[in-house]
Amino acid sequence: MKRAKLILFFVLSGLLFNACNDDCDCNGQMLGQWEIADFVSVESSTYPKDDNYSPLIEFNRDSTYDLALDVNVCGGEYSLSSTDSISISSAGCTKICCDSEFSKKITTMLPRISTWSINGDELRLTVDGWGWINLNRVSK
């Protein structure tokens, strides 16, 4: 009986350990700096991206993010609750001047993002009922 309990304990511990590792691996995939390439929604043409500049977002190991817009810089927090679910806080930004309408729209959409997926060096952040934001990895 004791042997059966020990075996059950080790099996359950292994399953729990593997579940934790899956979440950590996903977080590791998100870490690093990403260029915000574009977004796809019915509003895409309303908020054109400046061809000379792409906003950058960096996901940090401590579950914070840094966002570099055209002029201003922002920061906030994010959390992953499953293999594809993400929650991003509203960005706290400096108010120097003159960010593009594209950058402003990205900033307002961050808290509405619900899921994410990575394919190689491409990250897609999805907003239910609106569309998605495409990002390209700059550095890890």
UniProtKB/TrEMBL annotation:
DUF306 domain sequence ranges: 32-126
InterPro entries listed in its UniProt record: DUF306_Meta_HslJ (IPR005184), HslJ-like_sf (IPR038670)
Keyword Signal part of the UniProt annotation: yes
Keywords: Signal
Top-rank lineage group of the source organism: Bacteria
Pfam families documented for this protein: META
Annotated signal sequence range: 1-21
Protein's UniProt keywords contain Transport: no
Protein name: META domain-containing protein
